[in-house]
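Subgroup meeting minutes
Present: P.N., E.W., G.H.
Scribe: E.W.

1. P.N. recapped why we're keeping a running log of single-chain structure predictions: easier to compare across weeks, and new members can see raw inputs and outputs side by side.
2. G.H. added today's entry (113 aa).
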Amino acid sequence: MGIPADMRDAWINRRKSLLIASPEEDRILAAKRCQQEGVRQGLKAASIACVASAVPTLVGVRVIPWAKANLNYTAQALIISAASIAAYFITADKTILECARKNSMATLQKPSS
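Output recorded in log:
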């Protein structure tokens, strides 16, 4: 047995409406939002980098004699995935740091009561 989902959700929402969010909870929510934004921007950058590195790699393997002789399928996949992974992590890191900087500046500029 257990509490039905709709009753459980109603109880949780009722408890949340009675509680006032603490500054610590606000910081946690801001950090989660920054993290989600970083993931979103990182995925966008990784998909663009994947296409931008796949096209020249695949064309080069079919046109350039050296690449045709030396770059097998594994090497092609490594080239494409390395570009995508690097783009993801660099963009996600920059986005998270930028968002954290904005949050810290907002807290410094907020008048304390």
